[in-house]
Write a structure and sequence with these properties.
Layout (H helix, E strand, L loop, with lengths): L14 E7 L2 E11 L5 E9 L4 H5 L16 H18 L4 H25 L1
Antiparallel strand pairs: 1-2, 2-3
Length: about 120
């Protein structure tokens, strides 16, 4: 069985708990840190089980679908959402500033790909 590592602190956790609050479910990693004389637990908040409701309402154009730390694929999801956003920006024919932002993203991705190539060499 693979060790379950807390994305918050990097230490193994014992179990996950889901707490319902208002209209969302939130996830906590539970660490048992002491057992004698009385069991002591520490809970680390990992975010919503699915998506942040109110935060996402503040970014409707980008449609990022922000999620909690429990979602290991969230960075790729955000990148895909941003690419879709920039495609819409281009289709809408927005100004030079938006095209410059897209060029900046391209430069950043190219730098990252060069790092990957160096690691693969």
């Amino acid at each position: 069985m693979a060790k379950r590592i807390c994305p918050r602190c990097g230490q193994p956790y014992n179990w996950l708990e889901v707490h319902k609050r208002a209209s969302n479910n939130y996830v906590y990693a539970v660490h048992v840190v002491a057992t004698k004389p009385k069991r002591k637990v520490v809970k680390h908040y990992l975010g919503p089980l699915e998506r942040y409701i109110y935060v996402n309402k503040m970014h409707p154009r980008e449609n990022l679908g922000l999620t909690g730390m429990i979602n290991e694929d969230r960075a790729i999801m955000y990148l895909e959402a941003l690419i879709e956003y920039f495609n819409r920006v281009l289709e809408e024919g927005r100004g030079v500033a938006d095209r410059e932002k897209i060029r900046r993203v391209r430069r950043l991705v190219e730098e990252l790909l060069m790092e990957v190539e160096l690691l693969d060499a």
